[in-house]
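User: Assemble these into one structure.

Assistant: Restating your components, then the assembled model:
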Amino acid sequence: MAEQFINDPMQEVFIFETSQQLEQMEQSVIKTEALGSYPSETINEIFRIMHTIKSSAAMMLINNMSVVAHTTEDMFYFIREEKPQFIDVSTLSDLVFEGIDFMKLELEKIKNGMEADGNPEILIDRIKDHLKILKENNKLTDSQAVNNEPLTEKYYISSSKTAKISEPKTYQVILQFEENCGMENIRAFTVVHNLKEITETFKSTPEDVINDLDCVEIIKRDGFILEIKTSESPEKLEAFFRTMAFIDRIEITETEDLLEIREELSILVSDEAIMVPQLKNPAIEMASAKETPVANGNHSQSMISVSVEKLDKLMNLVGEMVISEAMVTQNPDLKGLVLDNFSKSARQLKKITNELQDMVMSIRMVPLGPTFFKMNRIVRDISKKLGKEINLKILGEETEVDKNIIEQIGDPLMHIVRNSADHGIEAAETRILQGKPRAGTITLEAKNAGGEVLIIIRDDGKGLSRTGILEKARENGVVGDEAANMTDTEVFNLIFLPGFSTKEAVTEFSGRGVGMDVVAKNIEAVGGNILVESVEGRGTTITLKIPLTLAIIEGMNIRVGESCYTLPIMSIKESFIPKSQEVFRDTDENEMIMIRGQCYPIMRLKEHYKVKTGATQIEDGILIMLEGETKTTCLFADELLGEQQVVVKTLPKYIQRMKKIDGLAGCTLLGDGNISLILDVNGLIAQKRFRN
Amino acid sequence: MVDEFDEFDELEFEEDDESEEGKYLTFNLDNEAYGLEITYVTEIIGIQKITEVPELPVYVKGIMSLRGQIIPVVDVRLRFGKPGRDYDERTCVIVVEISDITVGLIVDGVAEVVAIPEEEIVPHPDLDETDSRQFVSGIGKVGTAVKLILDCQKLLEDDEMEKNSQEA
C-alpha cells in the first residue's frame, strides 16, 4: 500500500512515468545485449529516456537520480555522436543496469515516503571511467568528444559539430504537447528548465506556468510559445525539443525582430505577447510533422492509465448492482404474481448486468508479459555471474490475470527462475559431457486452463535429486523411516518446507533455503498451488496454478444458527450427515470422526466462533470435509445453503486494525442483502491445531 | 426493512453553504445528551441487519452493508461501558468517517443538530479517568442544557489495554 504515502500528484506522475521509462529501457537493453551491439534506435531511446529522467528528477529535486541519469546520458551522447567502433556491450549494459537499479531503488524510497539518499558517486565514477576507456579505445581525444564538462554547465551544445559561430538569431517555437498528457504547465516548466541549459535569452507565453492556473488551458489551445535567441540552427533546436517528454508537435520559425524581443524582455510583458506575428516556415513545419510518428513510436494514444483504486471502486459498484438486481427481480413482494412484461424487462436487466460484470472483470485483467520479461534480467545477471549459458524462452505472455494476482506472483516467480538458473542449469562443460546442448534453456510459459491460469517454469538442468532431498530431510529431522515409501511427488514437495535447500554453497542468488517456502506461501495466499515434477538429469518443471481473479470466488454458503459463512469450493472435499455413533472424543475432549478407516478431527464453527444459535446435536447438522495445505478437518455446520459466486470484500479497516481474526478471509454480500463471512480454510485449521 | 425506519433512511448531510464548524449532532443515552462534531457525520440510518463477527470486543456488534459498502458497527452504550439495550424503531446508526475509516455508531436515537460556539464549551474537569470519560473532550452549554462533546477520534481508537481486558 505504498500509494498511500503519495500525496503529491506531481510526484505520483513522476514516479509512474519514470518507472515506466526505466522498465522500457531495461527491456531494450536486454534485447540489445542479445544482439551483441547497440543499434542506433536503442542508443537514441536510452539517450532520450535518460535525458527526460535527468530533467524531471532535477525538477523534483532528486539530485542523485538526476546525476546518474546525466552521466549515463553523457556516455550515450558520446556513443551516439561519435559512433565508436569498439563497444564493450556487456560492460556497458552492466553499467546501464546498475544505473537503472540505482534509480529504481531511489524511486522505491520516494514511493515509501523516504528521502532518496543513495550515494551515486561510485557508480558515476565507474560510468565516467568507462566513457574514458571508450574514448581511448576509439582513439578520440578529449577535445573531440565534448561531454566531459561538469553537470552545471551547458553540455548540450556540441561545439565540434556547430563549429562556425553564427549570428544569434531569434526563433519562435510553438510546442504542442501530446493530447491527454496532463499537467501541461508542468511539462512547459520542464521545457523552460531545460532551455536554460542552451540559452538564457528566451521568453515564454504564457509566462508564469507554475502559478497561473489558466495557463494549462492556454497551452492546450495555443501551444506553448517560446521566443528564443540562440546561435543554434533550427535543426539543433528541434532535436533539443524532441528529447523532451510528451511533445507532440514542434513549430520553429525564424523571426527577424530581434529588437522587439529584447525590449519585451526588459519590460514586463502583458498578454499581448501571445499575438506575436507568426512567420511560418513551411519546410521546417513539414519536417517536424514527418518526424512525429518516429518520436512517438511506442506511445499508444488509445490507452489510458487508470488508478487501481478507481477500478476497485467500479468493481464494488458492479458487485453491488448484481446484488441489487437480484433483490429487485427476486423480491418477495412479487411472489405469486404473473408479471410477463416485468419478467421480460428483468431478464434484459440481468443480461446487461452480467455483461457489465464481465467487462469490469476484464478491465482488471493484465497480461503476464511485463512480469515475465523482468525475468530476462534475472537470468541474464545470473548467467553472467556464474558463467553459465542460459536462454530464457517466454511463451504465452499475453495470458491475462487479475492485477492483484500479478503483484503477488512476481516474487515467487523470481525465486523459482533464480533457483532454476542457479541450481538447475549446469555449467556448459558439464552439459556437454552429458550430451546436452551447451546452453541451458529455461522456459516460462503461461496458459489458461478453465478458471485457472497455469504458469509453468521448465528447465533442462540437472533435475531434483530424490536421494539428495531425502538425505537433507533426514538431517533436518523432517522425515523418518517412512522416507523409503514416499512417492517422488511427496519427496519433491519437501523442498517447500522452511529452511530447506539442497545446494551446499550459498550463492548471491539463492541457496539460503528461505526461497521455496516463501514461494509456496505467496502462491497459496492468492489461492493457488504448486506442482513439482522432475526427472533427475533431465530437468525440473514447476507448475503454478493460479485462479484467474481474486475478487470473485466460487463459494459454498453454509449456515450456523443465524450466521452465514462462505467456504471456497476449492477446499471442500465432501459433505455428509454424520451419525452420532461415528463421533467420539479423545481424553482431551477433542471430537473426531472415523470415515472409511481414516480419523478426522471435528471443528464446530458454533463453538469456535461462539455463535449463540445453531445446532448442537451432531445429527442435526452437516459435516463438511475441508482439505487444507497440511491437514484435513471436518467442519460442523447447520446446513449447506448452496453454491454461489461471491465477490470477495475485505473486512472494514476498523476491524482489521483492531484484530487479525484467524480463519476469516473477508466477507461478501449475499443475494438477499445479508453479509456472509468468508472462511479461510488454512487459517481455521492452523488455529485449531494451535488451540489444541 | 420495516417501514418506520424510512424516516431515517438516506438522511444525508449535504455540505451546506454554511460552514459546518461549531455544529454538533446530538443524541441521548439514558439521561445524558452527547454531541458529535457534524463534520465527521456522513449520514444517519435506521438500524439494519448486523452480521456478527467473531473474536471482537463486545461493543463491536459486527458489520452491516451500507449500500454495498461494508462498515463495522459499534454500540456506543457498550463502548461507554453502559448496559446494553434492545434495539427498537428509535435506534439509529450514525455513520461517521474519520481519516478513511468509516464506522457506524449505534445510539438510542438522534435528537437535533445544534450550533455550539467555541466559547460555550468548557473543558472536561478531568476528575478521574473512568472508562467513559476519556471520550468526552469538553462540555457544551446550549441554553440551560448540557451536551457532552465526544472526541470522535478517541471513540474509534482501540487502545491495547482495553482489548486485552476484553479478551481476558
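The CA atoms of residues 206 and 214 of chain A lie 9 Å apart.
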